[in-house]
Amino acid sequence: MKALAYEKAHSLDAFAIELVDTAEPRMRDTDLLVSVRAVGINPGEAAIRRTRSAAPGGRVILGFEFAGVVKAAGPRAPGFAAGDRVLGTGDWSRDGAWAERVAVDHRVVARIPDRLSFVDAASLPIGGLTAWEAVFRDRDGLAAGIDRVLIVGGAGGVGTMAAQLLKTRTSAVVVSTASRPESREWCTAAGADLVVDHTGDVPAQLRDAGLDRVDLVLSTAGTAHNLGWIAAALRPFGHLAAVDLNGPVDLGPLIDRSVSLHTETVFSRITAGGDAAAQGAVLAELAADAAAGRLRPIVTTVLDGLRVETMRAAHELAESGRTIGKTVIAV
């Protein structure tokens, strides 16, 4: 089959992803084999491309967010059959979905409702699961005492999904950050009650709007750099959920507020253990909400064909730092 792959980590200027012939995915008993129809593109994949090389003689096939059609189901993958339309995440320990077919654990897959397109379905898994697991303590909703939520990077995929989930499932006041007119407009359309500029004094903007402190900050970008003002915006014993922390981080600004810190990676339930089936259940709810119009589609850019040119264009958007919503490649 055909797949987009690379061997050595590389910058965008030295873009080295190529369309190659590769063996069919090797299925495990709990797997589905899925014919890929669309893939969502995420900043995390661009970061992996810049930093992760293949083992000697190997290659890396990324792609952790997809929609497609089941070709085959393993003997321990109940509830699915050939022909089912599905969306899912895969995991970063295996070959991903930048290929004609992908093998994926059935527990992190859900069916796509008839009214939902492959393109819209492919935009949901990573942003939706990340937002859900970062914001909600469990499937019952927010933890007690969380009434005001600040989303840093509200126009991206995770931020957009988080705002919508909060407004459709809770009574929380939602504040999003954005710095450009178009991203501010996007955040408002996603349901934010207030939009503030993260390039300015965020705590002062919150006070001007009558919000002395927030209970929860969901930070999707620049967390390590922003910890000073994030701490100032949080109430004592507040909560910080961060999706981009890696490497050394000075948590000093948080200490005197007794802040709880939640780091979020959607692949942990597969790679580190846990209730992976819970993610399939959440994906099913997200897909149902999108099909019913309770969640609006977050796709803003659709590129045609799993080709080197479209993937490079997608990575240029991902690395621009100015992406609104989600980029999806239709296969």
List the helices and strands and how they pair.
Blueprint: E1 2-5, E2 18-21, E3 31-41, H1 43-51, E4 66-73, E5 85-88, E6 101-105, E7 109-111, H2 118-122, H3 125-135, E8 148-152, H4 157-169, E9 173-177, H5 181-189, E10 194-196, H6 202-208, E11 214-219, H7 223-233, E12 234-242, H8 252-255, E13 260-263, H9 268-271, H10 277-292, E14 299-304, H11 308-319, E15 326-330
Parallel strand pairs: 8-9, 8-11, 9-10, 11-12, 12-13, 14-15
Antiparallel strand pairs: 1-2, 3-4, 3-6, 3-15, 4-5, 5-7
Structural class: alpha/beta
Helix content: 25-40%
Terminal-residue CA separation: 14 Å
Number of domains: 2
Please write the CATH class name of the largest domain: Alpha Beta
CATH superfamily of the largest domain: Medium-chain alcohol dehydrogenases, catalytic domain
Kindly state the number of beta strands.
15
Beta percentage is 15-25%
Number of helices: 11
Unreliable parts: none
SSE pattern, N- to C-terminal: EEEHEEEEHHEHEHEHEHEHEHHEHE
| CATH overall fold name of the largest domain | Quinone Oxidoreductase, Chain A, domain 1
Q: Give a short account of the largest sheet.
A: 7 strands, mixed
Q: Let me know the average pLDDT.
A: 95
Q: In the CATH classification, which architecture of the largest domain applies?
A: Alpha-Beta Complex
Whole-number radius of gyration? 20 Å
Which geometry do the CA atoms define?
Answer: globular
Protein name: Zinc-binding alcohol dehydrogenase family protein
Organism: Catenuloplanes indicus
GO molecular function, one term: oxidoreductase activity
Pfam family, one: ADH_N
